């Protein structure tokens, strides 16, 4: 086994002392989440802060947020494979695992929002009749296709690394890896590599359609100010890619520290990701500016009222905090860093990336809730209940838990030496 | 005929068949293709659609005194629950006289009130909303299971057994016509009517709903398709402000009104083609509540 | 020929609503055409191996079944509480 392989296998072999309390804490929060949901199941959605005017709240915000996080995986993987940006190969797999985990949580978030989740299967039964018309089903189709392709894209190239894992263990662990490797033979990598290239090429348009259909859930409703509009697709996609890349920066920085992977994840990776993040955040800020101008210059009543609420009304504090500290400040830092040669500060890059991720969650809140509360009549307010907050927090803990478990079982960095050139 | 030989005829037939199929498939609107599953499974929930009818309602917002008799009668007729949270199928807004009726379009009447306790108030008029049973309903398009659909006589209905409670139809409705069962509804065998204090039993003709489903005005589908051509709200209005009928029948009240008074509809620019028309003959109600 | 044309014109104009192709079908085509491209590339490109193709299709089918199964599973589990 090479030194590189040894290093990558470290989390699979050894467990630090801090691991168990950390997992315990995540598990406890997840249990609280499940408990809160069973309360909601037994009493009804009335336990939330939702009402007949604010029909959607933080559950839907969470759904969009998780779909956004899932855009990291293929964005990075595709860049590596299609554009031969081999420098980023080490983070490709940890990004794909994030895609897998966050898509699972996104699906769960939607089910949690349903009034009759025990009837969710009806969407499958009546699929053929309704797929012609319902944007919700278009979204489920796109997300399902994306999920299926992404897991396949994760699994197939991982087989050769799973073989290394199998060979380095004995007993039940060896058997565990053996089960994941039906029909494995050395030399299949050539075929799989070509297949993986085609997968990267084809998953990219699917990824674009995923967030386009998510945006269509809102932007095809002509009665909703600041939802309805043609630019929702690019707007949502920019936010998704930004939050996804930012999450990968954070995860990469954490595992780099935890497992002493300084040479496996050199600073150039973070510099490149930081540059890209700067550009995509700048694009998003531009789209926000254009949107507000359209609403304010000679905007129709609904658009103007909602824009007023965002900028000067009841949502102004959240809006300006997330825009200035959450988006403009990180963008400026990352832009300055992009233009300054020399060593980059990985810690600060990941701090600002965390800020961007949090800001994007709140930005989704600003998109969803004000249009409902002040965009129509009568006016309404919305305060999430403790059940909703527990479920939101719990879903994030569950995501972290799933990710932690996965990184103990599969190597999250590709073992193949990245070729430079 | 002699010029066309058999082979050409068969080819032409095949071509017509293909075009007809394509034409039929693509000529079917979204409404046609997708409402069949709902109508099939809603058998038994509602009576059969009235063939050839096109129901519409008209409300005289000048005559309306905001007494809410329609709202309470509707609740009793349709088993709309009071507990654990009060649900209503009809909304009533109190608007200032200086606000022209057209100003309601797309604009949140921020100074209107749904919470008023006395009416009619000097200097105000009253606007009543319920489901408009639009001819081009935005709500039926978005339903992922086909629970809400439009029937042949124009009624937009909800199949309570198919609804998964995603509330997408509520997001799509421009008029906030729909209401959601956030809790398990309490349906006592009888209730005291706020109108006259009488005990009114549960209506066996209207299906009871469960938690987690959407409901709304049905134009009293259980009445109008079953021998009683008047919805309950129209029947009880003390100033005769509400009118209902079949637009396809030129003798019906609404057809005649459509020809004689100037009507308008809410948020026309959204192309929903609502079947609830508003008009006013410009005259305030008479002080003694005399019917106009 | 003139009669055929007249017949075709009549059939084409019998579309009473101007809505044309349901929008969802267009969306499905846009979402799934990359998948079709991928399947073609798998089956026709070189180098290829029957085993990898089989593995690929099997894995796709497996994840698809897990996905649909999860919908039914969640319906069932939540139904226990309602």
Q: How would a crystallographer describe the biggest sheet of chain C? A: none
Multimeric organization: heterotrimer
Please identify the top-level CATH class of chain B: Alpha Beta
Overall geometry of chain C: flat
Total domain count of chain B: 1
How far from one another are the termini of chain C?
65 Å
- Enumerate the spans of chain B where pLDDT stays under 50 for 5 or more consecutive residues: 15-33
How big is the Rg of chain B?
A: 22 Å
Q: Tell how many strands the DSSP assignment of chain C holds.
A: 0
Determine the number of helices of chain B (DSSP H or I, runs of at least 4 residues): 8
User: What does the average pLDDT of chain C come to?
Assistant: 82
Count of β-strands of chain B: 12
What is the count of DSSP helices of chain C, taking H or I runs of 4+ residues? 3
Give the chain pair forming the largest contact, with residue counts: A-B, 48 and 50 residues
Helix and strand succession of chain B?
HHEHEEHEEHEEEEHHEHEE
Helix content range of chain B: 10-25%
* Structure classification of chain C: mainly alpha
Spatial strand arrangement across the major sheet of chain B: 10-1-12-11
- Helix-strand makeup class of chain B: alpha+beta
Which descriptors would you attach to this protein?
heterotrimer, A: 421 residues, mainly alpha, Formate dehydrogenase/DMSO reductase fold, globular, C: mainly alpha, 3 helices, 77% helix
Detailed description of the structure:
The complex is a heterotrimer of chains A (421), B (292) and C (82). With 421 residues, chain A is an all-alpha fold. Chain A is 74% helix and 0% strand. Chain A has one domain: Formate dehydrogenase/DMSO reductase fold. Chain A has 17 helices and no strands. Chain B is of the alpha+beta class. Chain B has a single domain (31-279), classed as Alpha-Beta Plaits (2-Layer Sandwich). Helices cover 24% and strands 15% of the residues of chain B. Chain B has helices spanning 6-27, 30-41, 69-77, 138-142, 168-172, 221-224, 232-236, 253-260; strands spanning 55-60, 91-96, 124-129, 148-150, 156-158, 179-180, 190-192, 199-201, 214-215, 242-246, 263-264, 276-279. In chain B, strand 4 and strand 5 form a beta hairpin. By secondary structure, chain C is mostly helical. Chain C has a domain at 55-82. At the A-B interface, helix 7, helix 9 and helix 14 of A face helix 2, helix 4, helix 5 and strand 6 of B.
């Amino acid at each position: 086994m090479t030194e590189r392989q040894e290093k990558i296998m470290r989390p699979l072999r050894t467990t630090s002392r801090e691991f168990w309390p950390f997992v315990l804490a995540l598990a406890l929060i997840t249990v609280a989440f499940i408990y809160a949901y069973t309360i909601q199941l037994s009493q009804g959605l009335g336990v939330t802060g939702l009402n007949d005017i604010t029909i959607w709240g933080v559950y839907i915000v969470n759904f969009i947020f998780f779909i956004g996080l899932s855009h990291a995986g293929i964005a990075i993987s595709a860049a590596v494979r299609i554009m031969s940006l081999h420098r980023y190969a080490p983070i490709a797999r940890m990004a794909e695992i994030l895609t897998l985990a966050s898509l699972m949580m996104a699906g769960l978030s939607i089910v949690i929002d349903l009034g009759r989740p025990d009837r969710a299967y009806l969407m499958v039964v009546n699929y053929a009749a309704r797929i012609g018309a319902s944007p919700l089903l278009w979204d489920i189709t796109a997300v399902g296709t994306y999920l299926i392709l992404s897991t396949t894209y994760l699994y197939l190239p991982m087989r050769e690394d799973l073989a290394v894992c199998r060979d380095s263990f004995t007993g039940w662990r060896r058997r565990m890896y053996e089960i994941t490797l039906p029909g494995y033979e050395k030399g299949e990598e050539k075929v799989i590599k070509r297949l993986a290239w085609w997968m990267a090429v084809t998953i990219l348009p699917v990824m674009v359609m995923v967030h386009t259909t998510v945006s269509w859930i809102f932007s095809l409703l002509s009665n909703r100010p600041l939802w309805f509009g043609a630019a929702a697709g690019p707007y949502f996609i920019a936010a998704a890619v930004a939050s996804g890349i930012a999450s990968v920066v954070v995860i990469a920085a954490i595992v780099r520290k935890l497992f002493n992977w300084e040479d496996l994840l050199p600073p150039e990776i973070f510099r490149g990701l930081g540059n890209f993040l700067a550009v995509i955040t700048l694009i998003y800020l531009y789209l926000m500016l254009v949107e507000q101008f359209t609403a304010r210059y000679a905007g129709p009543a609904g658009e103007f009222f909602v824009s007023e609420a965002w900028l000067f009304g009841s949502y102004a504090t959240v809006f300006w905090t997330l825009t200035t500290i959450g988006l403009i400040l990180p963008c400026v830092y990352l832009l300055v860093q992009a233009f300054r040669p020399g060593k980059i500060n990985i810690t600060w890059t990941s701090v600002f990336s965390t800020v961007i991720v949090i800001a994007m969650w709140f930005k989704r809140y600003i998109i969803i809730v004000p249009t409902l509360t002040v965009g129509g009549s009568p006016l309404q307010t919305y305060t999430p209940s403790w059940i909703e907050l527990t479920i939101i927090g719990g879903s994030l803990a569950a995501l972290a838990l799933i990710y932690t478990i996965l990184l103990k079982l599969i190597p999250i960095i590709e073992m193949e030496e990245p070729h430079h050139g | 005929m002699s010029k066309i030989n058999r082979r050409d005829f068969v080819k032409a037939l095949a071509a017509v068949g293909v075009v007809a199929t394509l034409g039929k498939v693509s000529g079917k609107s979204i409404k046609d293709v997708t409402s069949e599953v709902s109508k099939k499974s809603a058998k038994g929930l509602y009576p059969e659609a009235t063939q050839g009818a096109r129901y519409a309602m008209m409300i005289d917002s000048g005559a309306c005194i905001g007494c809410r008799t329609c709202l309470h009668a509707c609740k009793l007729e349709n088993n709309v629950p009071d507990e654990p949270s009060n649900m209503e199928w009809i909304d009533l807004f109190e608007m200032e006289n200086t606000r022209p009726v057209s100003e309601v379009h797309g604009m949140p009447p921020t100074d209107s009130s749904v919470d008023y306790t006395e009416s009619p108030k000097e200097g105000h008029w009253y606007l009543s909303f319920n489901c408009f049973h639009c001819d081009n309903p935005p709500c039926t398009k978005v339903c992922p299971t086909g629970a809400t659909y439009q029937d042949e006589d124009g009624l937009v209905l909800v199949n309570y057994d198919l609804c998964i409670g995603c509330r997408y139809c509520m997001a799509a409705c421009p008029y906030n016509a729909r209401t959601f069962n956030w809790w398990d509804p309490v349906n006592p065998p009888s209730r005291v009517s706020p109108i006259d204090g009488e005990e009114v039993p549960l209506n066996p003709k209207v299906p009871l709903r469960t938690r987690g489903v959407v409901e709304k005005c049905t134009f009293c589908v259980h009445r109008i398709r079953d021998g009683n051509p008047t919805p309950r709200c129209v029947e009880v209005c003390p100033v005769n402000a509400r009118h209902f009928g079949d637009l396809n029948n030129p003798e019906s009240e609404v057809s005649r009104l459509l020809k004689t008074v100037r009507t308008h509809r809410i948020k026309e620019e959204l192309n929903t083609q609502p079947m609830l028309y508003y008009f006013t003959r410009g005259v305030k109600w008479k002080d003694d509540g005399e019917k106009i | 020929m003139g009669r055929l044309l007249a017949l075709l014109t009549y059939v084409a104009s019998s579309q009473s609503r101007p809505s044309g192709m349901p929008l969802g079908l267009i969306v499905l085509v846009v979402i799934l055409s990359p998948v079709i491209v991928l399947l073609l590339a798998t089956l026709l490109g070189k180098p290829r191996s029957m085993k990898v193709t089989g593995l690929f299709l099997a894995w796709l089918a497996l994840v698809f079944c897990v996905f649909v199964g999860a919908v039914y599973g969640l319906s069932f589990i939540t139904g226990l509480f309602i």
